[in-house]
Amino acid sequence: MSSAVIIGGGDFPRKPFPRELIRRADVIVCCDGNALKAFLRNRERIFGDTSREPDAVVGDMDSMSPSLAKKYSRILIKVEEQDDNDQTKALHHIINNFPEVDTVHILAATGRREDHTVGNLGLLMEYARSLSGAEGPSIDMVSDYSTAFAITDSCDLFLGKGRRISIFSPDNSLKITSKGLEWQTSGVVFDNWWPATLNRTTEDVVSLKLSHKSVALIITD
User: What are the φ/ψ torsions at residue 219 (nearest 5 degrees)?
Assistant: First the structure.
């Protein structure tokens, strides 16, 4: 098993769990210059020294200073197309170049800008949809406050009792029947962001039964 982390340009994690994900990662990819600078500022606290460098810096390099670009030119992967954001470019780089990676944690993808936060969380559903039925890594997004991931079919989630959980979906025809939640979701119409938020687990395992194969975003504390 091998893990990778993608570090974005949002709020760099301060709490032990997300920082431990960075410390244990086999592959580290930064999204452009701001993410690289944040990693460099924090690496001594995470690793105990300053020897660890990212395996790649991927993006359009719009936030990369000339001095950093020169110093880290050997690991810069410039992708100029604008159909995908830097987070997606970094994920594609990992999938294409590190086939041994079976888990990808996306960090520092939220905070600072609400539009980037919403967009990056929404992309988790796109990743799950594109990788559904194919061999590829499991992907989640971790911050100091939550872990987010997407599902594409009925499943059992081993979350633990007493966890906060919210469910989102862009599919307003989707019905989700749940077991192990304080409030049943079978009557929820996913026609906005809020209807299935602020729930709580009442059992260690939460079962979600989807009316049809679709996509849903899960955010837990």
Answer: -125, 125
